[in-house]
Design brief:
The complex is a heterodimer. Chain A is an alpha+beta fold. Chain A has eight helices and nine strands. In chain A, helix 4 packs across helix 8. About 2% of the residues of chain A have low confidence. Classes of the chains: A alpha+beta, B alpha/beta.
């Protein structure tokens, strides 16, 4: 990585040097052209003065004209003949045009190269930073369930526990494993979505069945955190999307809602759906910690965790809502979120194209 | 006489980890309370007190470092054991600067955790009991006065000195053996426990701070003397 960096910076430096060199060359050529023209003008002036002297000395006009063919010689004045003057002006203009075109072309190519290399370097730096941030976050997020797992195992090892306590510890460990599995799933999904490696199908998906299935997977966790989940989705509502994507979207939005409600000691999450024109809308409301309206933009950004440590640390990687937004975009739908402020809950609205009956 | 029952407050927002720590501390005979939010932890101290705080760093409401600094700012001297997923040197130092007594990175070994809890409680037990014994809670030397219970002193020029608990502990260790040499390792062991600080230089820095507070000329100390290559010797006014 370091060698690539050195190579990129060397190329950038060389291109900058080349651009400066071309600039200098153009300037130099232009200066030399001007000097050449000035020297010619001086030469014609000297020839004019010589012709004047010869005329004053009584040399006949024909003889002088033969000696200085580029001059228009008359007793009144010695001037440059129209043809050589025109040729001189033409050459000046031609050179200027040539410099402008050639120089302009080379300079724009070089500046283009500089721009491309610079953009590549910036993009790479951004990717590197993102990777670093990602690794730090992932390792941090995994350490909590790992610590919990280790603690449970070492407790079992250290102490003589009655069967019911052993059972409870095992449940806790299984839940920690689920937590890590969820995180791994999110990381893989977001990686695929970031690199555009996800091809989605488009088929009618019954929303009620998906919502019920996902909700049933979270009932136990919700109960532990004193959260009630209510869903009201009419059986005839069908969205046009990839079934896996709909499942992932509902799962991540519900996950987010539970993580928002747990830190306030419990509450409720409701999921309601309705047909709206050519779309199906699923509204997921929670009575959780909410967010500042100003933070709305940040919500769907990768690694954005508005309430780091507040329950979202439980499962959160800062990727869930990023995945939701990308999947909704790829499905031809959209997602939006609103909250009246911290501590006042939040509402997520998901819109998919509807399957026309 | 039975052993005293120590009261520990666990501040941890992860429910599983909090439950695991709570169960194990209870199994060891401690009285345990848990709080899952930084602000709630600070509020908890409005009405209650405990012998040790096990404090997570990444917390909702207020992070662990801020909780520790706030409590220290209010004069709470309860020892703090930080538990955190970030175990790098910078965070360790931040934790200790915020007034923490020890630092354990997640995931941790249960037995090591319990050992550290015991070590901190033992150190504080020693400090409190020796501070209360035989009216030795106030040390007077050469016009200086230190109240070990209040962590407060008055120097020879009348200035009030608010001591950190580490400064008070070091002074306590030295003052218990006036005129005798106390090695840096002994000081580290008594005041910090085993491996919290990587170097004995830390002790030197604390001695410099004590000299600034209580010596008439810190550059020419009369009470906190360095014994080169070994450690320190404390001389009260009479011996000096």
């Amino acid at each position: 990585m370091k060698r690539t960096r050195v190579f990129q910076f060397t190329v950038l430096l060389l291109v900058i040097v080349a651009a400066v060199q071309v600039g200098y060359w153009l300037f130099d050529q232009h200066e030399r052209g001007a000097e050449k023209t000035a020297a010619l003008v001086r030469l014609y002036d000297q020839q004019g003065a010589a012709a004047q002297t010869l005329l004053a000395a009584g040399v006949p006009l024909e003889r002088i004209r033969a000696l200085f063919p580029d001059l228009s010689v008359s007793p009144a004045q010695m001037a440059l003949a129209p043809a050589p003057q025109a040729a001189l002006l033409h050459e000046q203009r031609q050179r200027l045009t040539q410099y402008l075109w050639e120089g302009g072309f080379f300079l724009s190519v070089l500046f283009g190269c500089i721009g491309v290399i610079f953009a590549a370097l910036r993009a790479e730096t951004r990717v590197l930073n993102e990777q670093e941030q990602f690794l730090a976050l992932v390792s941090h997020q995994f350490k909590t369930p790992l610590a919990s797992l280790q603690l449970s195992l070492e407790t079992m090892n250290l102490r003589q526990l009655p069967p019911e306590r052993l059972r409870a510890l095992m449940d806790r460990m299984l839940s920690d494993l689920t937590r890590m599995e969820t995180m791994v799933g999110q990381i893989l999904d977001s990686s695929r979505l970031s690199h555009g490696r996800m091809e989605l199908k488009r088929e009618p998906v019954p929303l009620e069945a998906t919502v019920n299935r996902v909700v049933s997977q979270y009932l136990e966790r919700a109960q532990t955190d004193h959260i009630s989940i209510h869903s009201q989705v009419a059986p005839q509502l069908q969205v046009l999307a990839d079934p896996m994507a709909v499942d992932a979207v509902v799962r991540n939005v519900l996950e987010n809602a539970l993580a928002a409600v747990a830190p306030v000691g419990g509450g409720k999450v409701t999921l309601t759906a309705r047909a709206l024109g050519g779309e199906i809308e699923l509204a997921v409301r929670d009575s959780g910690i909410g967010f500042r309206p100003a933070d709305q933009e940040q919500l769907f950004r990768k690694f954005s965790r508005l309430n780091a440590g507040a329950g979202s640390s439980y499962y959160g990687t800062g990727l869930g809502l990023f995945i939701v937004q990308r999947l909704m975009q790829l499905s031809g739908g959209r997602v939006s979120a609103t909250s009246e402020g911290l501590g006042r809950g939040a509402e997520f609205l998901l819109h998919w194209p509807a399957e026309q009956p | 006489m039975s052993d005293p029952v120590y009261h520990i407050l666990v501040v941890e927002d992860d429910p599983h980890l909090a439950a695991g720590v709570l169960e194990n501390l209870r199994a060891e005979g401690y009285e345990v309370d848990t709080v899952n939010d930084g602000r709630k932890a600070v509020e908890w101290f409005d009405t209650r007190s405990c012998d040790l705080i096990v404090l997570d760093v990444m917390l909702p409401g207020m992070d662990g470092f801020a909780v520790c600094s706030t409590l220290r700012g209010r004069g709470t001297t309860t020892p703090v054991l930080f538990l955190t997923a970030r175990g790098d040197a910078v965070d360790r130092i931040r934790g200790l600067e915020a007034g923490g007594d020890d630092y354990l990175a997640k995931p941790f070994h249960l037995e090591e955790f319990l050992l550290r809890v015991r070590a901190i409680l033992r150190r504080w037990d020693w400090y409190r009991s020796s501070a209360l014994a035989k009216g030795s809670d106030v040390l007077k030397f050469a016009g200086n006065e230190v109240d070990f219970r209040a962590f407060r002193g008055r120097s020879w020029n009348g200035e009030v000195q608010e001591l950190t608990e580490k400064e008070a502990m070091i002074l306590k260790v030295l003052a218990e053996k006036p005129g005798e040499i106390v090695s840096r390792e002994d000081l580290l062991e008594k005041v910090w426990g085993y491996d919290v600080f990587p170097s004995t230089r830390t002790v030197d820095n604390f001695i410099l701070r004590l000299r600034k507070r209580f010596e008439r000329d810190p550059a020419d100390p009369q009470h906190f003397l360095t014994v080169w290559g070994v450690g320190y010797r404390f001389l009260s006014g009479e011996q000096a």
